[in-house]
Amino acid sequence: DWIMGSFAEESVQKIKEQVGKDEVILGLSGGVDSSVAAALIHKAIGDQLTCVFVDNGLLRLHERKQVEETFRKNMGMKLVVVDASERFMHELKGVTDPEAKRKIIGRLFVEVFQEEAAKLPNAKWLAQGTIYPDVIESAAANTKKAKTIKSHHNVGGLPETLHLKLLEPLRELFKDEVRELGCELGLPAEMVYRHPFPGPGLGVRILGEVKKEYANLLRQADAIFIEELRNADWYDKVSQAFVVFLPVKSVGVMGDGRTYDWVVSLRAVQTSDFMTAKWAHLPYELLGKVSNRIINEVKGINRVCYDVSGKPPATIEWE
Ligand code: XMP
């Protein structure tokens, strides 16, 4: 694309001038915005950029491996991967309130990131994948003292505590422009057009207390749902789709035995702004196939439901 091509070139020049010989750190989440920011900045300053990816134990199946593939192996970026999953699980122990879980996950991310930043004393800049709608949203929040129903924080709190200068090369772009730029920079289409994934990850898709056992089951079920959506060409027809883990056991039969296992719900929505959303009318055959596969392949789950609630009054996530 011609426009994004020249945007990339101009941006690269600007970043080079701005940063000079300084080092830059960036918190990579695997999401579109931070990925595109990383690719753009890497194009401009190469090894002066270090990306930090925090494995909080609440990622999707193979997500960490995919990030390592794409950024370290394919793009040759300096990437620090921190396995903090035990630490997150430990701090989440016994916590059931959704907002409390969000706060813990957000705080721990900042702590872990700061510890890594401290190991890079030459870093003068903090890069972020802030895009135009984020700029607008936080301006509105500052003036209106917005009453947020959920605290949607990913990396909030980082700039203040790190004493670094902010580098935000996507500040003027809308989401679809960020995606185009990502393609232009050679990121895989699968990554660039991926559904949004909340900062707290599976932490808000495991209802109530987060446990490693639940996260492992949820990860497998979710991967099956996404794989079947892609196979049926439904992935791009929905705005977001995922599985929710319900900490409830139900009775089932398997072979000639009785099972007493966990329940999950599938969620798939269509929306343009995520403020309101309709549940997706997925074909019954597809739902049936996903259900069969999850129950047969994920030992520990014996019942699959489909969420037919719109937003409002339900939210997209269950927490
Ligand atoms: P809800 O559940 O509020 O979700 O209808 C609307 C959109 O926001 C995402 N979401 C989050 N994103 N941190 C995030 O980064 C969060 O805590 C969070 N909670 C919800 C959700 O996935 C959906 O796209």
Q: Nutshell version of this structure?
A:
With 319 residues, the protein is an alpha/beta fold. The protein contains 11 helices and 9 strands.
Shape: globular
Care to count the β-strands? Answer: 9
Q: What order do the helices and strands follow? A: HEHEHEHHEHHEHHHEEEHE
Number of domain modules: 2
Q: Any idea what the radius of gyration is?
A: 20 Å
For this structure, the quaternary state is single chain
Please name the CATH topology of the largest domain: Rossmann fold
Structural class label: alpha/beta
Bound molecules: xanthosine-5'-monophosphate
Biggest sheet layout: 5 strands, parallel
Mean pLDDT: 94
Question: Strand arrangement, largest sheet?
Answer: 3-2-1-4-5
Per CATH, the class of the largest domain reads Alpha Beta
CATH superfamily name of the largest domain?
HUPs
Instruction: State the end-to-end distance.
Output: 39 Å
CATH architecture annotation of the largest domain = 3-Layer(aba) Sandwich
Q: Count of helices?
A: 11
Measured as a percent range, the helix fraction is 40-55%
Fraction of residues in β-strands: 15-25%
Explain what this protein looks like in three dimensions.
The structure is a single chain. This protein has 319 residues and is of the alpha/beta class. It has two domains: 191 residues, HUPs (Rossmann fold), CATH 3.40.50.620; 102 residues, GMP Synthetase, Chain A, domain 3. It is built from eleven helices and nine strands. Strands 3-2-1-4-5 form a five-stranded parallel sheet, with helices on both faces. Helix 2 crosses helix 8 and helix 10 packs antiparallel against helix 11. The two termini are 39 Å apart. Xanthosine-5'-monophosphate (XMP) binds next to loops.
